[in-house]
Amino acid sequence: MSESLSPEKPAAASAAGKVEKAFGNLLQVRFAGRVRQGEVAFVKVGDRKLKAEVIEIAGALAKLQVFEDTRGVDFNTEVELTGDLLEAELGPGLLTSIVDGLQNPLEEVAKLSGYFLPTGVYIAPLDRERKWDYIPVAAVGASLKRGDTVGTTSEGRFTHRIMVPFALYGVYRITWTAPRGFYNVDQIVAKAVDPAGREHAFTMTQKWPIKNSLAQGEKIKPTKMMGTGVRIVDTQFPLIKGGTFCTPGPFGAGKTVLQHHLSKYSSVDIVVVVACGERAGEVVEVLREFPHLTDPYTGESLMNRTVIVCNTSSMPVAARESSIYLGITIAEYYRQMGLDVLLLADSTSRWAQALREMSGRLEEIPGDEAFPAYLGSRIAEFYERSGVIALADGAQGSITIGGAVSPAGGNFEEPVTQATLAVVGAFLGLSRERSDSRRYPAIDPLISWSKYVDTIGHELDHQIPEWSAMVKRANKFLLQGNEIGRRMEVVGEEGTSMDDMQIYLKAELYDFSYLQQNAFDKEDAYCPLERQMLLFKLINKIFDKKFKFTSHDEARGFFLNLQNQIKNMNFMPFNSEMYRNAHRIIEESVELR
Ligand code: ADP
Ligand code: MG
Fold it and tell me: Which of the 8 DSSP states describes residue 445?
C-alpha cells in the first residue's frame, strides 16, 4: 500500500474529544490534542461511527458537522479525530460508478439496504477485487513529479493514467516497477524515493482532499467549442471546453431535462453528474434512467463515460456540500489524463441552502437573504476549478462546469443566481413564460448570453463565411420582433406597418423552427453543427428577403406555412433524400416569392 505521505499530513489520529452541545447536525466538541480545520472525525454512537467534519476551531472547542442523522448523540458522546481531511479515492473504476457525497457506491449500498445507507456504514469506493491490466511507463531511475505518469491501464475505451500521487510534492526517483500484468487497486505497482531518501510505494489508487484543487500543469485559455447539439446553445449562446455556464430557471422549466441532454450529447470524453435532488424522487429517477441510456457517439452504455454523485434532499445538508467537491475532484483527476470532462451540478441552489443552514447554526453574521457573506467566494472558487490544462507531455485536458440554479419563484435577483452570474462565462436562463407556452428548451434568448460568442464565431467564420455576423443579426431580429410583438398587443395588427409585421413574423419563424427543439424526438433531439449551419443559412436567406404582401393576413399565412415546413425538416434524417428535397422546395419558394 502507498503510504501516501504528504508534507502537511500528520502521521496518525491526532486527537480525541467529547460532545458538549448538539444543534441538529452541528456538534460542539471539547477535545485534547491537535485538531485542524476540515479534519474528518468519527462520532461514536453505540457500535456505529458517524462521519463528521471539523468546520470551526476555537481553543479546545471544535464545531463539527455530521454527515448523517445524529440520533443517539448525547452529552459526552466520544469523538475520534482522524487527522485526515475529507478525501476522494481516485483510481480506475470510478467511471460507471454511482456514489453519494461521501463516495459510498450506491449499488453496493442498494444490495445492503435499498439505496438508503444505514447510518455509520461506509463502503470502499473502488472495487478491491477487480484486476486491471497494468502497463508500466516510467522506467527505473526516472525522476517524476506529482501527477506524472507511472503507468497506464485501460478503463473502457480510455487510457487511465496511473499518476504519482498529487499529495506528494518534490521529485521522486523510481526504484522499482511492476511488470505488465493484472493487479488490483491495492497492489504495489511502483516504488520511488524522495529527496530525503525515504521510500514510497505506489498503487493504482491515491487520495486527495476534495476541497482543494489537485490541478497540475499550466492553465491555458480555452478556445475550443463544446458542441451540445442544442441549436439555441450552439448557435446563439455557444459553450467552450474549459468554460463555465449556468442554467437558472424556475421549478419545472426544464433545467433537469436540459442537463440530462447535455450529459448525453456534449462533445466531451467524460461527464460527472452531481445530483443534489430538488425532490427525493428526482435522484432516484437519475439512478433508474442513466444506466439505460446509450452513448450517441459510441453506441455503448452512457455510464461507461459517466460518474454520478448524488444526494437526495432527505440526506443531511452537509453531504450536499461534499458531493459538489467530490464531483469536481473526480473531474480534475480525469482532466490530468488529457481528457475533456463536463461537470454538471443540479442544483447548486441546494448546496447554497446547505451553506445557509450551517452558517445559521454557527451564528455567523448573515448576508443577503440569510446566506453567509462568503457565499459568493465559495461559488467563485467552485467555478474556478474549471479550465484547460496543458500537461507536461503536450496533451491538454479540460473541465467545463455547468450549474443549474433553482431560485424560488424564478426570481433571478436572488443571491445564488447573482453570485453565479458574476463568475460564469455563459448564462442560459430558462423562463416560465417560455416553458408555459411549451417553447422548449425554455432558454430565453432575450435574457441569455455567452461571453464565448466571439471566440467561437471566429473559429466558425472559417467554416462558414459571415457566421458571426449572421448570429448577431438573428439576435437583433429576435429583439426587434419581441418589441414589435408587444406593441402589436396594444395597437393591433392593423396599427403595425407591413415592414414591422415582417420583422415580427421572421423572428417568430426563427424561434419556432430553429430555437425550439424537441428533446424527445429521435431526429430532433441532437442537431449536429453541420446540420445547424445548413438550416441557419436557409433561415438567413429568409431574413434577407424583403417579401411583398398585400395584407397582414397574407403575410401571416405565408410565414405560418413556411415555419411549419422548416419545422418538419427537423424531424427528417439529415441529408436523406426527403431532407434534401424539403430543403430545396423551401429555398425555391423563398426565392420565387
Ligand atoms: P426543472 O428541473 O427545471 O424543475 P424539469 O427538467 O424536471 O424541470 O422539467 C419539467 C418537465 O417539463 C419535464 O418533465 C417535461 O415534461 C417538460 N420539459 C422540460 N424540458 C423539455 C423539453 N426540452 N421538451 C419537452 N418537454 C420538456
Ligand atoms: Mg430539476
Answer: T
